[in-house]
Specification:
about 400 residues; alpha/beta; 2-enoyl-CoA Hydratase, Chain A, domain 1; OB fold (Dihydrolipoamide Acetyltransferase, E2P); 3 domains; 6-stranded parallel sheet; 5-stranded mixed beta barrel; 15 helices; 14 strands; about 50% helix; elongated
Length: about 400
């Protein structure tokens, strides 16, 4: 009876086993880790048998690579990197990630290697280059030994930037086997019959991946730089300045100068900054709209994908921002409707607030929220009040109260 029960448990465990598949094409950047960590975490929670990463990359950031390697080595499920389809490559950082998986598999017509570290900022001094190289060599050496791969060949990928075809990599003990497609891969892994769950990058990961594309990041930087310059040369233009500041924040993230954790916080801070500017220097809603959009983008990037009612929260945030924007516009419209242009006759008899000490009988005063050049024979100090007696040549003549 116990034997039959054991067989029944084994049957059900095999029947409901799952294989989770992630697919990444492009440079290795912070969103790469976020995506892999999400899908690998999902496979662990679902107690899947295997996690497969289909990879095609020219390389990427070493720091992100280290995080992915560490995640693979700590994984509770079997990890597989499949360099696929034909024509794909696992270059530089991709090669290091590939050898860190429990199984490294290549499709026909692919290559792996050329993992020598290169600086993003041009030339480095010799000592720093050696430090980075030796650090990377130690990493791949330890990973290769842990995964029972040919450490000498793996080191040569880093030190001499050698690149191998799938046949060469198999012969030299860098990969485990060759598979022409996912079906053959599952068969060689003895995972036939298991449910395959393909998890694509979500909208947030796609957006961040787009921003971290080197070309896009550089264009955002130029847009931000020239937008701010134009705003400084043409104060009040608003659109170049607001778009420029938001673009500059996104460019800093795209260039890996700020982390994923700080990006949404900076965007929300920029949004609040725009709203405060709108409050103290009314611009007929332009800054309010820019602030609302920046706040919305920051909130979208801040909320984790697994938060319940995520879209409801975003919609609430959008509606609140639009309501605030509409309130600002309504308020400004009401002010413009009620406000009348001040003529000479209407200024006479008004009380002016002195905003600076008068020098040589002249200084500036505030009348009905407007700044005027004042003239007085009396000695007026900041904070004094004066009565407007007449207006000539855009100057108000005052008598101290």
């Amino acid at each position: 009876m116990a034997f039959k029960l054991l067989l029944l448990l084994v049957f059900f465990s095999l029947s409901f086993a799952k294989v989770y598949v992630a697919r990444w094409e492009g440079p290795i950047t912070p969103p790469t880790y976020d995506y892999i960590d999400r899908v690998l975490g999902l496979s662990e929670r679902e107690k899947a048998s295997t996690f497969i990463l289909i990879l095609n990359t020219p390389g990427g950031l070493l720091e992100t690579t280290r995080k992915i390697v560490s995640r693979f080595l700590q994984s509770k499920v079997d990890t597989v990197v499949f360099i696929y389809p034909s024509g794909s490559r696992a270059g530089s950082a991709g090669a290091i990630i590939s050898i860190s998986a429990k199984y490294c598999v290549m499709a026909p017509g692919t290559n792996i290697g050329s993992a020598h570290p290169v600086s993003l900022f041009g030339k480095e001094n010799k000592i720093l280059r050696e430090k980075v190289l030796n650090d990377t060599l130690a990493l791949v050496r330890s990973v290769a030994k842990l995964r029972h791969r040919n450490s000498k060949v793996v080191e040569a990928m880093v030190k001499r930037s050698i690149s191998l075809t799938e046949r060469e990599a198999l012969k030299k003990g860098v990969i485990d086997f060759i598979a022409k497609d996912l079906k053959e891969l599952l068969r060689k892994l003895n995972r036939e019959g298991e449910e395959v769950v393909l998890v694509e990058p979500n909208s947030k990961e796609k957006l961040l991946k787009f921003i971290t594309n080197p070309t896009v990041a550089y264009l955002l930087f130029l847009l931000g730089l020239y937008g701010l310059i134009y705003e400084l040369l043409n104060p009040g233009a608003l659109l170049p300045g607001t778009v420029g500041l938001i673009s500059l924040v996104l460019a800093l993230y795209g260039m890996n100068l700020i982390s994923t954790d700080y990006l949404p916080i900076l965007l929300m801070a920029v949004g609040v900054f725009f709203l405060v500017l709108e409050a103290i220097t009314p611009t007929f809603g332009g800054l309010a709209l820019a602030g609302a959009l920046s706040l919305l983008l920051g909130t979208y990037l801040y909320l984790p994908y697994f938060v319940e009612n995520r879209w409801q929260l975003l919609l609430t945030s959008l509606l609140f921002s639009l309501a605030l924007f509409a309130l600002v516009l309504f308020s400004l419209k009401a002010q413009r409707k009620e406000k009348r242009m001040l003529g000479k006759e209407e200024l006479i008899g008004k009380v002016a607030q002195v905003v600076e000490d008068f020098k040589g009988g002249e200084g500036y005063v505030m009348i009905n929220g407007e700044l005027w050049k004042g003239v007085s024979e009396e000695d007026l100090k900041k904070g004094d009040k004066a009565l407007v007696e007449r207006v000539e040549n855009l100057k108000v003549y005052l008598k101290k109260l």
